[in-house]
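With this grant's support, we have settled on a layout for protein records. An illustrative entry appears below exactly as we store it:
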Amino acid sequence: MFFPMFLGGLVAGGIGFAAAEMNVLGLRTDTSAISEAENTVAADLADQGARIAALEDVLGKTPTETDAPAIDLAAMDEIKASVAALTARIDEIANRPAPAAGEAPQVDTSAFEAELAALTTSVETQRDEIQRLLDNALSVEEATEQAARAATAQSAVARIVAALTTGQPFQTEITDLQAGGVQDIPAALTDAAETGVATSANLQDRFPDVSRAALAAARAEAPAGTAGGIGSFLKNQLGARSVTPREGNDPDAILSRAEAAVRDGRLADAITEIEALPEGAKAPMGDWLADAQARQAAQDAVQTLTQRLTAN
C-alpha cells in the first residue's frame, strides 16, 4: 500500500512541475500559474519527504522469523525509474534555449528558476535516499532468509535427537538439513538415517545374554588346568558371572564393568571395556557392539553438528 502512494506522490510532483514550466516557456504573462506551480511543487516535495520517513521507519524495524517486513522490491524499482525519468525531464526543460528577442514579451522567471534548482536538488537527494532504502531492503530480506534457514536446520537437528532417543529413522530430517544448505553432514548420521539406531534401553536389555555368551566363549578358550578349582568349574557349568563391577583383567571382570557402564548410560566407557576382551570373547558380542558403536557415533555426530550450527 505504501509504495503505490509514494509513486503517486512522485508522479503528481512531476505533473505539477511540468505544467508550471510549460506556462513559463509558453511565455504567458499570467504569473498566477507560476505561483500555483510553485505551491504544488513545494507540497509534493513535503509529501514525498514524509513518505520516505515512513519507509525508513518500516525498514528500521528488526525483522523476526514471524514478523519480517514485507519489502516490495518491484515497487522500489518502479519508483527509481520514475525518479530517473523526472530528473531527465527537469534537465531537458532547464537546457532549452531562451526565446529570441522580439518573439514575445519577457517574463521575470527568477523565482521559478530558483524553485527549479531546489526541485532538481530534492529529486537527486530523494533518488539517493531511495537507493539507500533499496539496499537496506535487500539486507533485511537476506537476513530474514538466513534466519529462516537457521531455524529450519535447528528444528531438523532437534528432531534427529528425538529420533536417536526413540530409535526411529531420520532420513527426512537429513534431507531438510541438506535442502537448507547444511554441508558436510557427518557420515555417522547419514549412514544410520534410513534405519535409525538402537536405543539405550534396547542395548541394556540385550547385554546380559551377549555377556554370558562372551564369557562362555572366553572360558572355553581358557587353557586346560586354569579352571581354578571347583568354584570356577561350577561357574562354567552354570554360566555364572559377576553382576557388580569389579577390578581385574579377566573377561568376567571386564564384562562386569561394561554392564555397569551400560546401565549408567556411559556407552563410550562400555565400548572401551568390551574392546579389551580377547577376540574369542568379542565374537558373540559382534552385533551388540556394532549397534552400540553406531549409536555412540550418531550421538557424537549430532552434538558436533549442533555446535557447528550454533557457531554459525
